[in-house]
Design brief:
heterodimer; A: 223 residues; Immunoglobulin-like; 10-stranded antiparallel sheet; 3 helices; B: 175 residues; 19% helix
């Protein structure tokens, strides 16, 4: 699935958020892209955890994993659709999500987290190493209880995407990443390098996006 | 906390419509109730209702047959044509039926320019359900509703010795 996310356009954010347009997906191409995305993710994972000397991985209980990437600790899980939910701990810990969708850098997005305690959460888009990441503006550690966490995100065309992630082992994995990050000395924790982190699906290769300004929709939407 | 309950339609809750004033615009219907309320609404296949009701003020509302705590305010993501936003909904009990009233009408304006909207609701079991509503005919229906409501207000004002008064809520809902 590769679609352009729709920026939340609440009035208080209009000034700082460019509005994205949403096109109807071309389902066949999207499916093909989804398959390509999975393959790319697998290749990246192999490169990250199999070959890169800068990456070390600890086993964590459940469906979560902890990886050390160039001194930064990341706990993450990947669901059956290839979407990733994780937390990256350098100086601070930041939760992120990636479903291979296109988002505009600096754009503000919204999701609703399901019960218990349903509420709306806000995310900001950052592009790192050819991946479009949505970083949660708030700490969602309070919500890592239970078996699953589920998010609903408006994607335009009166539709939503729903993301469901296992929380089995989440608390332990997040605690491990945070604790090990704190153990590291400041000099040993470099700034994050997105290419080395388990960030999930990459941006479609024909985006020709240079990291500045609005993403070229026509290319990225896979017309 | 939400709980699913049986559907109680706005029509049943708010009084009998005046059939002379009932009209249809695409997937939307307008009517004037005996208590003077003028409203426009659409009902989807699941029986959920989205519309605007005008009495003292005009307010958009959603009736998805969920139980809520009166007065509680929730932010809900809404998906429209090429736009995503969140709207603030307030749980209100109206004639025995609980509905979600949109607190900030201006947030609805961009959404209403499309052909459909969906609202996400979280259920007790940790899942979501989505109510999708057609907007075909909504512009005409809402315009009709506002016009008739203003007309009604004006006539009431004349009866009370004054003219129709400007109401800030009107500006917010005109498309």
């Amino acid at each position: 699935m590769s679609e352009r996310l729709t920026i939340i356009s609440a009035r208080q954010w209009t000034l700082i958020c460019p509005r994205a347009r949403t096109d109807a997906p071309r389902h066949l191409i999207v499916r093909l892209w989804a398959a390509a995305g999975m393959l790319a993710t697998a290749i990246i994972a192999l490169a990250m955890f199999g070959a890169s000397p800068a990456v070390a991985q600890d086993q964590a209980p459940g469906q979560w994993r902890v990886a050390k990437v160039q001194g930064a600790w990341t706990a993450y899980t990947t669901n059956g659709s290839g979407s990733v939910l994780g937390v990256s701990c350098a100086n601070t810990c930041r939760y992120y999500m990636n479903d291979g969708m296109i988002c505009d850098v600096g754009g503000l997005y919204g999701v609703m987290v399901a019960a218990p305690d349903p509420r709306d959460l806000h995310l900001s888009c950052e592009h790192m190493a050819n991946t479009a990441l949505l970083f949660f503006k708030d700490d969602i550690g309070w919500r890592l209880a239970g078996d699953y966490i589920e998010f609903a995100m408006p994607i335009g065309d009166a539709r939503f995407s729903v993301f469901r992630f296992s929380l089995a082992g989440a608390k332990e994995a997040v605690a491990m990443a945070a604790a090990r990050s704190k153990q590291a000395t400041a000099s040993a924790v470099p700034s994050l390098s997105g290419g080395d982190l388990p960030y999930g699906k990459p941006i479609p290769p024909n985006c020709n996006w240079n990291g500045k300004g609005p993403t070229p929709k026509e290319d990225c939407i896979l017309n | 906390m939400f709980r699913m309950i049986a559907l109680i339609t706005m029509a049943a809750a708010a009084g009998s419509p005046d059939s002379d004033q009932a009209q249809s615009f695409g997937q939307w219907r307008t009517e004037t109730l005996q208590n003077g309320t003028v409203r426009a609404y659409t009902q989807n296949r699941s029986g959920s209702v989205f519309g605007i009701t005008c009495h003292q003020l005009c307010r958009y509302y959603v009736d998805v047959s969920m139980r809520c705590t009166d007065g509680d305010v929730y932010n809900h993501p809404v998906s429209g044509d090429g736009i995503g936003t969140e709207v603030t909904l307030e749980c209100r009990t109206q004639d025995g039926s609980q509905i979600f009233s949109v607190k900030d009408d201006s947030g609805m304006i961009p959404l209403l320019k499309g052909s459909a909207i969906s609202v996400a609701f979280a259920t007790e079991n940790g899942r979501f359900f989505f109510s999708r509503f057609s907007l075909t005919g909504s512009r005409q229906a809402i315009a009709w509703t506002i016009a008739h409501w203003k007309q009604s207000k004006a006539s009431q004002g004349l009866q009370q010795g004054g003219g129709a008064k400007s109401d800030g809520a009107i500006k917010d809902i005109v498309l």
